[in-house]
What we know:
The complex is a heterodimer of chains A (1102) and B (500). Chain A is mainly beta and 1102 residues long. In chain A, 7% of the residues lie in helices and 47% in strands. Chain A contains eleven helices and 65 strands. In chain A, the strands form 16 sheets. Chain A has a 22-stranded antiparallel β-barrel. The radius of gyration of chain A is 32 Å and the shape is globular. Chain B is mostly helical. In chain B, the strands form three sheets. A two-stranded antiparallel ribbon of chain B has the order 1-5. Chains A and B meet through strand 28, strand 29, strand 30, strand 31 and strand 35 of A and helix 1, helix 2, helix 3, helix 4 and strand 2 of B.
Amino acid sequence: MFHNFFFMINLRFRWPEKSWKLQFLSKGAAVFSMLFILLLNSYAQNTVRGTVQDTDGLRLPGAAVMVQGTSRGTTSDINGNFVIETLAGDQSLIVSFVGYTPTTVTLDGRSTYDVVLKSGELLEEVVVTALGVKRSEKSLGYAIQKVDGKSVSEVPAVNVVNGLNGKLAGVNIQGAASGPTASANITIRGENSLSGDNQALFVVNGMPITNGLFSPGDGLNGSTTIDFGNAAQIINPDDIAEISVLKGPAAAALYGTRAANGVILITTKDGTGKEGWGVTLNSTTTLSSVLRLPDYQQEYGVGGYGKYSYNTGTTYTGDYYDAFGENWGPRLDGTPINQWNSNGERVPFVSGGDNVRDFFQTGITTRNHVAVTNQSETGDFRMGYTALNSRGIVPNTDLKRHTMSMSTGQDIGDRLRVRTNMNYVRSGSDNVPNAGYDESSSIMYNWIWFPRNTPIADLQDYWKPGQENVQQANVEELWTNNPWFLVNENTNGFQGDRLFGNTMVEWDWTDRVSVRFRQGVDINNEHREFRRAMSTKSVLLGSYREDELSFQETNSEVLVSYDGMDYDKDLNVSFKVGGNVMRQRSNTLRANAPQLLIPGIYNLGNARSGVITDQFEYRKGINSVFGLANISYKNYLYIDVTGRNDVSSTLPSGNNSYFYPSVSMSAILSEMLELDPGSPLSFAKLRAAYAEVGGDTNPYRIRNIYSYDNAWGEYPVAGESAQLNNANLLPERTTSLEFGLDMRFWEGRFGLDLAWYDLVSRDQIVNLPLASTSGYTSRIVNSGEIRNRGIELVLQGTPVENENIVWTSTLNVTRNRSEVLSLPDEISTYQMVADIYPNDGGQDLSLEAREGMPLGQLVGLGFQRDADGNIIHENGLPLLTDEKVSAGTYQPDALIGWNNEVRKGRFVASALFGAQIGGKIYSRTHALSATGGAITNNDDPLLGLSTLDGRETYDVSYDAEGVPVYTAVDPDSWGVVGPGVMYDDNGQLVENTVAASTRDYFYAYYGNGFSRDNIEAATYDATYVKLRELRLGMVLSSELANKVGADNVTLSIVGRNLWLWTKVPSIDPETYSIRGGTFVPGFESTSIPSARTIGLSLSANF
Amino acid sequence: MKIFLNHRSVLLLALVMLAFAGCEKLEDINQNPNQPESVTPDILLPGVIRDMANTQVGHAFFIANCASQHTAKSLRNEVDIYNWNSAQIIGVEPLWQGLYGALRDINNIEESATTSGDDRLRAVSLTLKAMAFHILTDTYGDVPFSQAMQGADGIFTPVYDDQESIYTGADGLLSMLDEAHSLFESAGPGAISGDILFGGDSDLWHRFANALHLRLLLHASSQMDVASKFAEVAARPLMQGNAHNAELTYQGSFPNEYPLIPFKTGDFESVRLGEQLHQHLTATADPRLMQYARPTDETIGAENEAYAGWINGGKGCDDSGSRLGYAYYDYPGHPVGPNKAKGVWLSYAEQEFILAEGAMNGWTSGDAATHFNNGIVASMVDHGADPLDTGLASVDEFLAQPEVAFDGTMLRLQEQKWVALYFHGMESYFEVRRWYYNAAGDWAALPFLTPPCNNSNGDMLPLRFVYPGEEQSLNGVNFAAAVSELGGNDFNAAMWLVQD
């Protein structure tokens, strides 16, 4: 496991001052044992030694160490070490350093003291705000929350967005479980768009970058569940210096339209901070395993109604049930039965063990990072390289990612500064797992039907002998594919190149006026290829598709600042004016060979018939001018006024220019009231902000168009689009009002930050469904009004703080409600996602907006119930409603993140807990697995019946012709009686007493036959508690660090997603679906199990 | 503030200019480079024809064949057992959305033909329109018609027209086909570009329009006197043989292959030869058995290949029902049929049975037996059925059998028309429904059919399909009016065609 690290540092570094050699020979483990032994040794006894560091573990050189009550003292050296002679009677040391709170250390006879100093400037915290302007936090009239770069890099997540989960109030992040590239859904202060795009805007070093999903249209074979990841996930945690989250439109008004959903501002590291050269190394290796699987049963095998015997693998009734595809078969009691691989022999019918779990493998992720920095008088420089190599828990899935980052700044004379930040990321995978209800490449689809009696290893040779690349071997021939065949043959690969960064020129015209020009670019090119081997069910002749996706955005920005700050005056005014030109272009090209000619050749030239292509180009531009004024009075009252005018290419001329203002105020009550210095309240601030944001839409929505369809031989084909466009579109509007209170007590030892907001989005540009009898299926209109209201609470404190132990704790609590205030007159309900699981027949499940109700209702059929809520049965089976009903909203009642960190000397332990209270999730995995008889259903909080109850059982024998003969065993005990009521002969409701076949019961319970269209049956309270992150770290003593030439070496055990508590059966409730390029919260379908990750991390600074 | 007006402002200005220089006009950026705002009708026509053909094949496979007991589902048998509220249509665009979708471009074609004065194309668009609305109204009853397809003009919630007026109104289906006939006749034969149904021959469209006209008159004959109109239309140019069939010949590959081919094996094979059809074909030594179905799995490729039917609504009775014929599916390891199925809209065989019935009813003076025999022979030939397969020397020998030979009874006509309507879109169900209605709901009058076992509708054949849910939520007021007119969105509610 350590191999990677030593591979990385088995290098020579040439130091400017001294040349030294670092030669670890590859016996890594042995070296580490030595380090541990050295570490545990005691040191000499004659003098008092120690180190001085800050709460982040950074060694502080030049700190003053004084013996209390004397003038004897010393300062710490460049590595923060100090040595001081003490005399008998000396009681304590006082350690101080500029910018930090002095600390008293009691002399208790020990010879070493590791002193941790806390930053004393808590109240003067500086944050990065819109346009990259650094401001004192106390002057801001809106909510902004800062996350240090370390908090996403110390326990690194493959997707950086997941690393923010639980650390921010008001921010809802749902990590998915769809393999190494899994997307993360991030929304700030709720969802305010009916069209489904609610993702926060990502801004890196002042310039927006895309966080798109890039899943244009439906994927292969109707599946959108191959998750290539949200585009911002490639930001490298090792390169992040700081993350600020601008939560509301007031904070974000200056980023324009896209910032209405909040902004994640990321500042990357540069070369400043350490004079001369510096080197940072980081190496993390983690192992992942499945966190949670459904509760698979081990008592009954494949088959139907108690019967199974293999014949040809194509019959699902009658004597054989050998392609029934469900686990409603005979008992796994060792009865001899013909099986799919027994060559007509009768072999014992026994459990295949924990075959699903056995299929998964240990995921391994290694991340190695090196950065070189240099700071001189006139400039700084940093280059970083990170290699990420991740093997998923699904066999033959992976992700490789190389990140190069460069930041360099230079002062040219006294007045001109230039800085360039560039990031290049190359990522790729040979296979991204499919997490959908799609038999052509999803193994999760497979497990629903997979025989409980088949050991997974029995299928590992997945071709029929002599028919390699032509015919797979599987347990049956009609429905499913061999899981090994799927992961090894039906792959979904990609290669992506991403380049983003910007160049900035800043010129101080006068002492008060400066001009800044920035040019930012974000380029994302991705190549994807999808292989489907011959004999894949529903793609019998195989297929091969290539997608080429490219995206490009440029931003050119000019900002002129006037700094009116005059410390002699009470009233000060500063202002900025600027302009921005944004251009976006995205191209999609798909080429599909729908049938292959030669087996096993994946090339468009190998198409049996023509290659089907489609291509699309999107372009969009926004020109903006904006201004900002900061007014401050006496250092305790601050008012910001902003205004922005956008002109968007996507709106009809005449309506395409829109202005929006914001005003915010911060009042430092503690200064105004001149608090008594001894008061426990040390700081209090009141914020208030009002903001508007205007919004545009997607390109090409003004005029009706015809779209091309697949040609009929030599006949080209086109048809009028079913979407009615609108030449009179208006810009969308969002207005927000927010109030906040920030209070700190006992010199900042405890803090409370409370925010309340009310955000209304109106004139939304939505694709409103139309009755197809109108000739169109939808039209683009301005319509609908959604309100988000919520409270954010951040409590932070240091419950324990002494020279031995410092315990800091942060609690983030979020409560948001999105409510649909109005919908267009024609409709009472708007289907945000109309048919979540297409092609399954029956009534569709949908995600809907209903007037006067919380946004995001989970809608489908429900149970017919009596007045007391009991389910009404007929013939022993539950009855479903004819009308669609809602099973509630996915919106949680509250989200909680609780982070704790305990430091003791050089040791640190931190744990981040995350919880969701309330909210609903529909689990299709559970509904399908229960109807398929694969799971026990014992963990279902809604239905107290087990799939093991009352099953039909038979003794199996064979007649002379080899036809199975079934003899019923104890048929009186067959069937289950569903909890609920039924109508008696007089039409009165009485307790249900009629037994139904167990399989039939489960099918009727979850929906009409195969359609599982009952939303109520599998919608659960999504409440969960998770241990999201855990870290046990140790900073090596400086002596030891110095021996390897390092300033600082930290060794940590890190873990993610280690523990989960929930009442939701079968799945990790923290998940979602993806349809049509947007996230669909509240619905889970055949998702890949989330992974528990644990590993070791080593970092060193030189 | 004298900072302005010094030489540095030039530099500032230059910087700003730089930032905004080279920018394209915003209006130009929103010019859609991908999709045209208008196209010629020859590009629309193939798409319309393909969509309508696919819709009909899909609905024959999943709905009509099962409802008319040609086939039976061994799994998901909601159609068979008359549980039509939750009927499963997998991988096929629903009839409602599919046909109203096709009508969008049919209207565009009509508009373009009217503008350009292309009468032949206009007649084609009227024929297509009549076809689409005919299937819609015959399936559902009252449907949006006069106000339908006018979303671009701001009519988003069209009213429902009653079926009688859709059929017989001044702008109704029958008038539409009269108008098409006059246009075809006055324009004379000529080319239709983009026509993949008849290879661009407007004369064949003309014949199809008239045959369709006869079909509609037959459908309406229970409610109105069609005699003279029938005679009038029967005298117009009609199909002369299988070469005139209104059917789409599919191509060999996706996405222009026979629409059932992309299905999952299990989904395709869950539809089996119906026991009623199996018995009838066996009893009449009909060689179409070997084309409509494959031998049972157990006997396939064996010396004595055997065929079996699946009982509609039967579950777990017998699992050896024959899969459908080689013409309808295609996968490795199984022989591919030489006579690949086509997307049938209306065949010459059907037209002959219509004419036979017209003659029997005295609407025309034609010879019913001749038309009857023409229909059988055409159907045999079209399916590539070989009488030798059932031990018959010739088709004539088949026709001479007492179980087959025309005996002047409506039952005999119904039997043979029923056999010929295999995979004829929704028409087999429409005809079975008409016969069932004419027999006053007495199954015994239709001995080739039987009430499905375990059916959930009290042995009553459902008379219509329920309106799709989208109408309720998107066209609620008009939907409610239509439902109330009908006496409920119920599949037993009688539409005008089958109203007492």
